[in-house]
Amino acid sequence: MPWREQPADLVFAPPRYPAHDYTGPGEIVTVRLGREVVGYLTRKGWDGVGWLPRPGLTEDADIVRVLVYDILRDAAAEGRPLVEAWAEVLDFTTHDAPVTAPLDGLRGD
Question: Which top-rank group of organisms is this from (predicted)?
């Protein structure tokens, strides 16, 4: 059978910031909605960012989860530096003070 191009080939991926590895120390910001933890925004330097939302969020907390995704996605699509996107997320969300801590095990693996 001759080779044919497959319709499921990845031809487009939205712009995004690079992810970092979850080893060693990094900066962790706990994003909240009231008392509920929505997720963890993480970075190692300004080379990569991670957003780890918690599962089973309430409907209101899920709105905050999507807000963080949208800010990061839109800023990357506009070509803005990661430092600006990070600051915008912190401006628009309720969060704990950033802490420097080991990232090992934060993803649960």
Answer: Bacteria
